[in-house]
Amino acid sequence: MKNLLSAAGLAGLLGLTGCAVVGAPVVGSIYTDVKYPSYYHGVEASGPAMKTGTAQAASILGIVATGDASVAAACRNGGIKKISTIDTHATNILGLYATWTTVVTGE
Questions:
Q1: Helix (H, G, I), strand (E, B) or coil at 50
Q2: CB distance 20 to 92 below 8 Å
Q3: Distance CA 92, CA 59 (A)
Q4: Gyration radius from the chain CA atoms
Q5: pLDDT score recorded for residue 44
Q6: pLDDT tens-digit series, residues 53-90
Q7: Which of 34, 11, 8, 29 is nearest to 95 (CA)?
């Protein structure tokens, strides 16, 4: 009976850690570190990007999440007026700590 309760407790704990998983196109249950493009229909600049801006949000234990990973925040942080590209970087460590970073390049 003790083993059954321990297994049920472990399953419940693992279920809670899944709350900190970021919505990346591929996710590892132990570790995730992926970069991929985001799609934005308002791309204004077509030449080489002169500036880069980033914005990030983070989650701890899937209980507390904070930050501003919006495109607008990344543009503001990089002084970007015309967007060339938008990329996303997602990191997750055991569902305990996760980050979502938006990277914008442009002029």
A1: coil
A2: yes
A3: 9
A4: 18
A5: 61
A6: 999 999 999 899 999 999 999 999 999 998 888 999 99
A7: 29
